[in-house]
Amino acid sequence: MLIPVILSGGSGTRLWPLSRELYPKQLLPLIGAQSMLQETLLRLKGLPEQCAPLVVCNEHHRFLVAEQLRAIDTPAAAILLEPVGRNTAPAVAVAALQAMAQGDDPVLLVLPADHVIRDEGALQAAISNGVPLAEEGKLLTFGILPAKPETGYGYIRAGKPLGSAARPLGVSHPATGGHAGMSSAVAVPVEQEACEVAEFVEKPDLATAKKYLASGNYYWNSGMFLFKASRYLEELERYQPEMLACCRQALERSARDLDFIRLDLETFSSCPKNSIDYAVMEKTDEAAVIPLDAGWNDVGSWSALWEVGQADPEGNVIHGDVLTAGAKNCYLYSSDRMVAAVGLEDHIVVETADAVLVAPRNRVQEVKAIVEQLKARDRDEALLHRRVSRPWGSYECIDQAERYQVKRITVNPGASLSLQMHHHRAEHWIVVKGTARITRGEETFMISENQSTYIPLGVAHRLENPGKISLELIEVQSGSYLGEDDILRFQDNYGR
């Protein structure tokens, strides 16, 4: 039995302004039509004995995650909600405990939700070949065959081969589009042996990285793992007993909320922070590495997206409404408006409805400093986009000034907002598409396209879409305070 454990708790600040704290990179379609979370799950289709996945995510992302799983017809065995981030070791611990709660001891395939893998067949072959080793008690990680002397990744030094456990793991292959940053153009033997892990090493300087590459004995640390649930918990109890105790108690005290499992806030907040590498893999005697050559990239920056993207003859990777004249080797992303680049070289330009990023490709790691400034100034641009997703649909602010705000609201078919009241604002609703069922005080009525209604301050109200198509309306708010926290909910279908 194989259970994928998908880690979807990151905030993706290095991909600001597209990735925001409340809508991070793993939930965005950065490479293709599907989000990175969806791509992570879809590339596992066809693996034998695969069960429904366990997903660990931030509680603020829960409805987005659930909707994206529904959209690809991949229901989760459980969606575990972290009230606070505690890194990967506790996240995997609660997933392992949940997996064993049904009386089984499955093999867990631990995958971050935000990686690019071009060769899905090579990944599936490596997983299939690793399962017998995991069932024997090994704690496996996947080592990426390095394509260049990379200083941005940690490395794994391979020890002695595992002898008869060695199995064919695929062949080298040319890059599938993209640039040289993908691990896909290295000449490697047809068969790669699983090996003991000799050591994990930190991100090296360039000279050291070149030595690693020349030795042929080092791999990039992918952050992907394969092991039995019980073996991980045994090793965690051996090396981090306090962490395991906190995770066990947080799950025991958890609460069911619709399709979600809410970990106990107080207990999980007291859990030590640590990664799987530091907590277990660097300490255990049973760590092994499976070499993997599958066109992998962790998409940790805008320059990484340029590397994996499909470039035009001038080396530009372009998304959206973009025009160029003499631009070379740039990543140019347009979300809402046309972007024009003239004579620009080796730059990143990313446009969204409320922010524009311009940076040299070799300095994109400094984007995090901008996010820190936004947070220090308590600006919304660090948290969310102008278009905000909700479990019932979305809203987008299209104009605002003192004492008024205008929003475009979209309600999905069959969905409804909470029964709520505001203390400081009144609202005017104008339907531009579909039909709305309105609850206003003691009355309930319908309005359709080109009709409107008024919700006085202090009156309980609810907006529903009883139709088969999306409901779209314009909302004009007016009052002394227009913040989203001026909502008193009486009933809510989504447990907020």
Q: How would you concisely characterize the structure shown here?
A:
By secondary structure, the protein is of the alpha/beta class. 22% of the residues lie in helices and 32% in strands. It contains 11 helices and 30 strands.
Describe this structure in words.
The two termini are 35 Å apart. The strands form seven sheets. The chain has a six-stranded antiparallel β-sheet, with no helix packed on it. Strands 6-9-7-8-12 form a five-stranded mixed β-barrel. It is α/β, with parallel strands linked by helices and 496 residues long. The protein has eleven helices and 30 strands. It is globular. Helix content is 22%, strand content 32%.
Please give a handful of descriptors for the protein shown.
496 residues; alpha/beta; 5-stranded mixed barrel; 11 helices; single chain; 22% helix
What radius of gyration results from the CA coordinates? 25 Å
Count of DSSP H/I helices: 11
Strand ordering within the main sheet:
20-21-22-29-24-27
Average pLDDT over all residues: 91
Low-confidence stretches: 164-191
Number of strands: 30
What spatial form do the alpha-carbon principal axes imply? Answer: globular
End-to-end separation: 35 Å
Mind summarizing the main beta sheet?
Answer: 6 strands, antiparallel
- Helical residue percent? 10-25%
Question: Topology of this protein?
Answer:
Elements: E1 2-8, H1 36-42, E2 54-58, H2 62-71, E3 78-82, H3 88-100, E4 107-112, E5 116-117, H4 120-135, E6 139-144, E7 155-161, E8 195-201, H5 206-215, E9 218-228, H6 229-239, H7 241-252, E10 255-257, E11 260-262, H8 265-269, H9 276-281, E12 287-292, E13 296-297, H10 302-308, E14 317-319, E15 322-325, E16 331-334, E17 339-342, E18 347-351, E19 356-360, H11 367-376, E20 387-390, E21 393-401, E22 404-411, E23 419-421, E24 425-433, E25 435-440, E26 443-448, E27 452-455, E28 461-464, E29 471-479, E30 488-491
